[in-house]
Amino acid sequence: MHPKEQRFKYRENIENGTTSGVCDGYLQANMISLPAKYAFEFLLFCHRNPKPCPVVDVLEAGQVVPRIADADIRTDLPKYRIYKNGDLERETYDLKDVWEDEFVTFLLGCSFTFEKALIEAGISLLHQEMKKVVPMYQTSISCEDAGSFKGEMVVSMRAIKKEELEETILITSKFPHAHGAPVHIGDPAEIGIQDFEQPDYGEFTPFNEDERIPVFWACGVTPQYVGLNAKPEIMITHAPGHMLITDQKE
Amino acid sequence: MHPKEQRFKYRENIENGTTSGVCDGYLQANMISLPAKYAFEFLLFCHRNPKPCPVVDVLEAGQVVPRIADADIRTDLPKYRIYKNGDLERETYDLKDVWEDEFVTFLLGCSFTFEKALIEAGISLLHQEMKKVVPMYQTSISCEDAGSFKGEMVVSMRAIKKEELEETILITSKFPHAHGAPVHIGDPAEIGIQDFEQPDYGEFTPFNEDERIPVFWACGVTPQYVGLNAKPEIMITHAPGHMLITDQKE
User: Fold this and answer.
1) How much of chain B exceeds pLDDT 90, in percent?
2) How would you write chain B as a 3-class SS string?
3) What's the Cα-to-Cα distance from B54 to each of A206, B47, B192, rounded to whole Å?
C-alpha cells in the first residue's frame, strides 16, 4: 500500500496502531512541533547533535504539509502526544483543535530505516525476533547545548552477534539521516547506564554475552527528552511507534 | 604566527588588510550577524543550502566568543561591513558601537580552505598565479528558500586544466565545510551566466579553452546576497577578503 493511502486511514481514524512494519520500504519520521519562539534554538540543537537529531524536513511556522510527504501533519499520523510545560497532558488522534499558526515542525529520521537494512543483510536483531520494543536508555553522554535545549543523550541498544559487528557498523554508518553509526560499543557502565536490565524505555532483550556484544545508537527519544527539559508551554510529538510514513523511499 | 596573535593586531587596529595567505593552515570563516528574529529562517536556509552556506559555528544571541576561536568577533576581524535595509551603509574596523545583545552570528566555511589543498596537490589556480581576486558570478540556480531568505546561488569560477579536473573534483568534495564539490562544470550559459568575461565580483582570468575548462563552486557571497534580499534592518558581515582567522587547523 502506498503511504498516501495508509495515511488516509490515519486521517479518517480507520486505523491508529503502530507504524512499525507498515508500508515497508518508505522512510518514517519522528515529529516534534514547538512554538516558533523555540525554533531557532531547537534547529541549532539538531544541527549540533546530528546523530540523535537527524533533520529530514522542517515545516516553517504554521505549515502543515511537509516536503517529503503529500500529507497533513495534523491528521496523518496514527497518534500524537501533547505536552504542556514539560509534562504529558494527553494523547490524541488529531491535532486540528490544538493547532496554532505559530507552530514550527521538525521531522527527524528514525532507526526503523537502518533496522530494515540490517535485516536485509541477514543480521540478527533480538528485539524483532522476540517481538519486543527495542530497549532504550538515558546516558551520561552530554549533548551539545543550544539555548534552553540541553541534556544527556538517550540511546537504543541492540545486542549484536560478534561476527556481525563489523558489518552492522558499516551498514548503519551509511544512514546519517537515521542516526548513523553507533555511539558506543560494549560496557554500558562506560556511558553511565546503571541498570542495564531495566531500560528506561522499551524492553530488555536477554542475550548470551559469549556470543553477542551490546551496541548503542543515538536515539530519537533524545530530542523529545531534551525538548521537555526546556519546559515549553506546549510541545507536540508523534506517540512512540506511531510515526509519519513519508513518500520517500528508504 | 598563531591566529590569536594575528587577531590581536586586528583588535588593536595595528593591521587591517586582507586575510588571504595569513596564518596559513588555519581555517578562515565568513561572518554574518543578524537580529535574532531572523535567526531561525537564516539557519534553516543554511541547512537547506549546505554547499553555499556551510555552517562551521553559530553564536547565539549576544554571544561574541565563538567555539572555534578564542576571539571576540566584534573586534578580531580586520574589517567589517554594515548593511541597513539591504544597502551597504559603511565599512568599519570595530563593531562595539553598533553591537546589540540580540545579534546572532553565523560563521561559514570558505573556499580559501580548499584552495590550499588544491595548491598542495600541484593543481594550477590561475587567479592565484595572476594575483587576482577569484571571479564570482550570479547564476540562475535557485537556492531552496527558507522564510524570507531566497534567491539564486552565487558561484566562484576556476578554470582548471583538463588533466587536473578529476583530482580537483575529488579533493574539493572532501571539504563539505568549505563548499564541497563543484556545482557545475563547463558552459557558463547553462547556469544563466550571461557575460562570462565580466564577473559580478572579483576579476576574470583569461584562459586557453583547449587546455582548461571552467569549474564552478557554490560561493560564500550567496548567503550575503540572499540575506540582503530579505532587507533586514541591519546585517553585519566581514568585508570581502577580511575573514575571521580561527584557531582550527584546516
Assistant:
1) 91
2) CCHHHHHHHHHCCCCCCCCCCCCCCEEEEEEEEEEHHHHHHHHHHHHHCCCCCCEEEEECCCCCCCCCCCCCCCCCCCCEEEEECCEEEEEECCCCCCCCCCEEEEEEECCHHHHHHHHHCCCCCHHHHCCCCCCEEEEEEECCCECCECCEEEEEEEEEEHHHHHHHHHHHCCCHHHCCCCCEECCHHHHCCCCCCCCCECCCCCCCCCCEEEEEEECCHHHHHHHHHCCCCEEEEECCCCCEEEEEEC
3) 44, 8, 23
Please tell me the pTM assigned to this model. Answer: 0.93
Question: Residue A133 carries which DSSP code?
Answer: P
**Which pLDDT tens digit goes with each residue over B32-76?**
999 999 999 999 999 999 999 999 999 999 899 999 999 999 999
For residues B89-114, b (16+ Cβ closer than 10 Å) or e, as one string? eeeeebbeebbeeebbbbbbbbbbbb
Contact state of B44 with A36 under an 8 Å Cβ cutoff: no
The partner residues of A238 in beta bridges, in order of sequence, read A80
* Torsion A138-A143-A149-A150 (CA) sign: positive
Predicted local distance difference test score (pLDDT) of residue B142: 97
Full strand arrangement of the beta sheet holding B212-218? B136-142, B152-161, B212-218, B184-185
Per-window interface: A 25-44 vs B, CB < 8 A: 36, 39-41, 43-44
Q: Tens of pLDDT along chain A (250 residues)?
A: 899 999 999 999 999 998 988 998 899 999 999 999 999 999 999 999 999 999 999 999 989 999 999 999 999 999 999 999 999 999 999 999 999 999 999 999 998 889 989 999 999 999 989 988 899 999 999 999 999 999 999 999 999 999 999 999 999 999 999 999 999 999 999 999 999 999 999 999 999 999 999 999 999 999 999 999 999 999 999 998 899 999 999 8
Give me the amino acid identity at A72: D
Q: Do A47 and B43 touch (CB under 8 A)?
A: yes
Give the model's pLDDT for residue A107.
98
Unique residue bearing C-alpha cell 544541527: A47
From A38's Cα to the closest Cα of chain B, the distance in A is 9
Whole-angstrom CA distances from B158 to A84, B153, B216, B224 are 54, 16, 7, 21
Check CB contact of A68 with chain B, cutoff 8 Å: no
Q: Chain A within 8 Å of B104 (Cβ-Cβ)?
A: yes
What pLDDT is recorded for position B147?
A: 96
Shortest Cα–Cα distance, A129 to chain B (Å): 38
Q: What residues does B35 pair with on adjacent strands?
A: B103
Please state at what angle helix A39-48 crosses helix B39-48, rounded to 10 degrees: 40
Q: Which helix (H) or strand (E) holds A56?
A: strand A55-59
Cell of A233: 508551554
